[in-house]
Design goal:
By secondary structure, this protein is α+β, with helices and mostly antiparallel strands. It is built from three helices and three strands. The radius of gyration is 14 Å and the shape is globular. About 5% of the residues are buried.
């Protein structure tokens, strides 16, 4: 991938993430995407992994590093 292609990809990802509505929180991990109601997420702020999800997707993200793996 060239630098120009990488820049285009980064912009596409940013546009996608910018379209997330304000009433939800999205958690992106290495192999999962979780969508949570913002108010419920705030209730579980200490342990957000315990908050019930509105939707989720698992797998197929082998080229994505979750924040926990990146730091």
């Amino acid at each position: 991938m060239t630098e120009k292609e990488a820049t285009k990809l980064a912009k596409k990802i940013k546009r996608c993430l910018s379209s997330i509505p304000d009433d939800v929180k999205v958690i992106i991990g290495t192999n999962e995407i979780l969508v949570l109601d913002k108010d419920i997420y705030n209730e579980f702020e200490v342990n957000p992994e315990d908050a019930p999800t509105l939707a989720y997707e698992y797998g197929g993200m082998k080229n994505v590093l979750g924040y926990e793996e990146w730091i």
